């Protein structure tokens, strides 16, 4: 004869997780001393759309993006990075990040939505350990096309103009000490190390992310001084074949190609790098791979493997790739 038993009572206390989290790269501001030429490149050649002008800045979005902008071109005496902006995971996490940065001893400024940044909400701004200005926010205005696509998950109609860059993909910055930068972005901002090029003297470069992408942020060693620089910004293309068509267009346009087309072992990316008229390096990126599991073990390229990490196939990268940044 069987007897019924009472279900076990759980003794686990569930605690709401309130730790703030950086969710995704939203936009970058790029300085250019040639604003009209840069604007022509980003719109007519890459295929970005102008959505707003304010002061010395022009706001652009790629064809597959739902935000009002992902790229800001700002006129300046020298090329480089104005700031990078990351969206946080929840609305109340902007203030959460302010408390966390205070505890970490990071100077910061919290400003109400609309007071300083176009089309975005409350914004927390600070400077990273090697001089890169950074913003964290949650709210932003969505793009509302005047003549939307019938494909409801696509903001604009086909065909795409120019090369047809789909979206801002990632950002590559430089630091004098990559190990220090890696640890700061991991310990303070919660970035996860995905891949690294490592030597006995320390990391030459690291590829980190806050999303399921193999990298949202890369950091490369820079021997030019204490202050970090911008190595490149990258836009995603649909396929490697689209990247080859982009190479044809760059040659036709007379756009200087810095490296590629080729494939990195790191991130499994098909790549081509060019310099836009203002002097900043731009990568067009296809491929890569997603990371879904929370227990990802970073891929470390070292010793003889580093050569294949840099170029899996294609021509070797020129010296400019390793010593030119803005």
From TrEMBL:
InterPro entries named among the record's database cross-references: Catechol_2-3_dOase, Glyas_Bleomycin-R_OHBP_Dase, Glyas_Fos-R_dOase_dom, GlyoxalaseI/FosfomycinResist, VOC_core, Xdiol_ring_cleave_dOase_1/2
Pfam families for the chain: Glyoxalase (PF00903)
UniProt-listed Enzyme Commission number(s): 1.13.11.2
MF term (GO), any: catechol 2,3-dioxygenase activity
Domain VOC: 24-139, 167-287
Keywords: Aromatic hydrocarbons catabolism, Dioxygenase, Iron, Metal-binding, Oxidoreductase, Repeat
Coiled-coil region: none
PROSITE patterns: EXTRADIOL_DIOXYGENAS, VOC
Catalytic activity entry: catechol + O2 = (2Z,4E)-2-hydroxy-6-oxohexa-2,4-dienoate + H(+)
Cofactor section: Fe(2+)
Protein family per UniProt: Belongs to the extradiol ring-cleavage dioxygenase family.
Protein name: Metapyrocatechase
Provenance organism: Pseudonocardia parietis
Highest classification ranks of the organism: Bacteria, Bacillati, Actinomycetota, Actinomycetes, Pseudonocardiales
């Amino acid at each position: 004869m069987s007897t019924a038993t009472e279900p076990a009572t759980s003794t686990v206390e569930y605690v709401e997780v309130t730790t703030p989290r950086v969710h995704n790269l939203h936009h970058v501001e790029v300085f250019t001393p040639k604003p009209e030429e840069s604007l022509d490149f980003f719109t007519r050649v890459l295929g970005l759309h102008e959505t707003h002008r304010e002061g010395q800045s022009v706001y652009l979005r790629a064809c597959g993006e739902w935000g009002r902008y992902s790229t800001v071109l700002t006129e300046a005496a020298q090329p480089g990075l104005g700031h990078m902006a990351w969206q946080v995971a929840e609305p109340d996490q902007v203030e959460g990040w302010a408390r966390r940065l205070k505890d970490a001893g990071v100077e910061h400024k919290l400003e109400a939505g609309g007071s300083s940044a176009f089309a975005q909400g409350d914004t927390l701004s600070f400077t990273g350990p090697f001089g890169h200005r950074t913003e964290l926010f949650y709210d932003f205005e969505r793009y509302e096309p005047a003549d939307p696509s019938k494909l409801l998950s696509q903001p604009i109609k086909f065909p795409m103009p120019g090369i047809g860059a789909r979206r801002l993909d990632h950002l590559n910055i430089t630091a004098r000490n990559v190990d220090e930068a890696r640890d700061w972005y991991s310990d303070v901002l919660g970035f996860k190390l995905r891949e690294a090029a490592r030597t006995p003297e320390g990391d030459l470069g690291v590829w980190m992310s806050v999303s399921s992408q193999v990298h949202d942020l890369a950091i490369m060693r820079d021997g030019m001084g204490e202050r970090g620089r911008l190595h490149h910004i990258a836009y995603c293309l649909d396929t490697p074949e689209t990247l080859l068509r982009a190479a044809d267009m760059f040659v036709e346009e007379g756009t200087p190609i810095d490296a590629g087309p080729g494939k990195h072992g790191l991130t499994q990316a098909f790549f081509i790098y060019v310099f836009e008229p203002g002097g900043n390096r731009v990568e067009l990126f296809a491929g890569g791979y997603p990371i879904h599991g929370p227990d990802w073990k970073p891929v470390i390229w070292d010793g003889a493997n580093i050569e294949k990490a840099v170029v899996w196939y294609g021509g070797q990268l020129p010296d400019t790739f390793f010593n030119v940044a803005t």
